[in-house]
Amino acid sequence: MRAAGILVCLVVAGCSFSPRVERMRPDTGPRGVASASPRVAVGRVTGGRESSFFTGPHLDAPTLAAALEDALRGADLWRSDARLRLDAEILGERPSGGSIASPDMGVELTVRYTLQEGAAGAPVWQETVGSGGWVRQSEVFVGVERMRRAIEAAARQNLDAVLARLRPVLARQSAG
Fold this sequence. Notes:
alpha+beta
């Protein structure tokens, strides 16, 4: 009886946790960015959905904002008072590959990024980045945790892609 109670607590706790920022950190570090390249501040981040016991884990705007800042810091591109601001809008987070009970679970994530000068400046660059993350049942048994890990993997790939696409833009900004 006690073991069943502990199991229920673990499952309920797993349902209420949002994706973790540290698991969204891209594997890439600073690459191809001259030390004179402009730095970027995180601007407005919108969209997404809050995690809850009833709907399961989801990526919300505050979590993506923290992960975006973490990724920019890790790539040595972040500065709080930068003249360039990177906004992000979560356009979609869609499960793929079945339900929470499926052995393999995936998430497709789409985010539109806009780089602009200042708070009201004209956009310098805008791109929509799609990514996907998959987790197998052999890696994580509990379905809710598998979904959270798939969201984290999709966000990690998305952030890695936006950093790769942002670097040449910043290089042009420092040259121009």
